[in-house]
Amino acid sequence: MTIFTFFYVIEDGGRSTLSLRMPPTVEDTSWWQFLSVSLVHLDAYHMYNNLILLGLTGSIFELIHGPVPSIAVFWIGGTTGALIEAAWWNGLKGTRLMGASAGGYALVSAHLAHLCLNWKETAFRFSFLAAILFYVTITIIFAFISSEYTVAHTAHWVGFVQGLLVGFVTVKNVRVFRWENTISLVSFFFATAILVSGCMKCGLN
């Protein structure tokens, strides 16, 4: 599906209706576009970068926790990222929002939720944590030095936050403690609040 929509965007000159025109308006925006933005990419470089990210993070997460948590993390992270980016867009007018980056970032942070809830049960936990922190550090540096107003940094970081919150709710927990249940409940509340606030701000109520 990603490859198909990638070619569709190229043939349509980057004006695919599956992407979102920034800033969105009621006249040219449909609710399903906040879902479809995660399936379309601007060019091969954009798509392959995201495929590598999803391949590395998503496959490991799915092997550990199964397809349902993986789908929940990816789509909630990606959709919420698109909503918040659209609601508070401050980039160039007419830019098209597209890409699976927010969902990929969500899967990265969901691994942090896994480590937090299953620290003692996770093999190579220090190496795992170091790899995640290294990726996050590189991403932060890139965000600060990048002058590209067309890069949806807000969507990326909202996806990262949502991935952590949804991860606390959906990941498998080998040994459940009371404080972990509290974290899961609080995470569910904040993840829902962020998603709903994005919907309301974009007029999807």
List the keywords:
mainly alpha; 205 residues; single chain; 2 strands
Can you walk through the features of this model?
It is built from 8 helices and 2 strands; from the N terminus they run H-E-H-H-H-E-H-H-H-H. The longest helix has 24 residues, at 178-201. The protein has a two-stranded antiparallel sheet. Helix 7 (153-170) packs antiparallel against helix 8 (178-201). The model is unreliable at 1-5 (pLDDT under 50). By secondary structure, the chain is an all-alpha fold.
The neighbouring-strand order within the major sheet is 1-2
Radius of gyration of CA atoms, rounded to a whole number? 17 Å
Largest beta-sheet characterization: 2 strands, antiparallel
The helix content is: 55-70%
Overall average residue pLDDT: 83
Helix count? 8
Through-space gap between termini: 29 Å
Kindly state the number of beta strands.
2
| Morphology | globular
Kindly name the structural category: mainly alpha
What percentage of the residues does DSSP assign to strands (E)? under 5%
Helix-strand pattern, N to C? Answer: HEHHHEHHHH
Runs in which pLDDT lies below 50 for 5 or more consecutive residues are 1-5
